[in-house]
Backbone:
């Protein structure tokens, strides 16, 4: 697959986008920290989709969906390739969902707190026993009609092929009741 012939983005355009991103970040922080937890699930889902779509518009990323997206993906476990941080926003723009992320992201300045506020579940990939806890959270979310997404390759790639899967998080979809009961 060849990449289109692209020119570097002009400096003024990059500066404008940076300003828009700062404003987007401030609005997003206000929404997630102040209003998000007061809203019902439908309002939170709409807010997350709006936040994702706003970011993609700033970055001039167009999401094209091929095939049919189910109107209702509740109780779904989504596994996807991961080629960029924008993948998360592209998925959220199509359908609201929670994500599983490596725990290191939780400590990132500004962003870590925001994605935690948005409902991200963090996994310690260095602790094998953490998988059971995360599977229990996934199973409970699915039983509560939620949608959960993760990247089973556990890192970004160019998306042209598949990396080996870290398959342990699929267990929550295979035996959801047993996994959810382990939370209690």
Residues:
């Amino acid at each position: 697959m060849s990449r289109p012939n692209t020119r570097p983005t002009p400096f003024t355009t990059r500066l404008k986008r940076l300003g828009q991103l700062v404003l987007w970040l401030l609005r997003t922080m206000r929404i997630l920290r102040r209003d998000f937890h007061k809203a019902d699930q439908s309002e939170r889902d709409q807010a997350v989709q709006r936040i994702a779509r706003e970011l993609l518009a700033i970055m001039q990323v167009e999401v094209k969906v091929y095939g049919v997206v189910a109107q209702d993906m509740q109780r779904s476990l989504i596994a996807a390739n991961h080629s960029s941080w924008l993948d998360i926003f592209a998925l959220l723009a199509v359908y609201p969902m929670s994500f599983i992320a490596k725990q290191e992201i939780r400590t990132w300045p500004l962003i870590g707190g925001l994605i935690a506020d948005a409902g991200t579940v963090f996994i310690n990939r260095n602790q094998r026993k953490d998988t059971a806890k995360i599977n229990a959270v996934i199973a409970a979310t699915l039983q509560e009609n939620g949608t959960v997404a993760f990247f089973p390759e556990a890192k970004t790639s160019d998306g042209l092929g598949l990396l080996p899967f870290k398959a342990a998080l699929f267990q929550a979809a295979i035996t959801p009741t047993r996994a959810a009961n382990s939370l209690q």
User: Anything to note?
Assistant: The two ends are 49 Å apart (CA to CA).
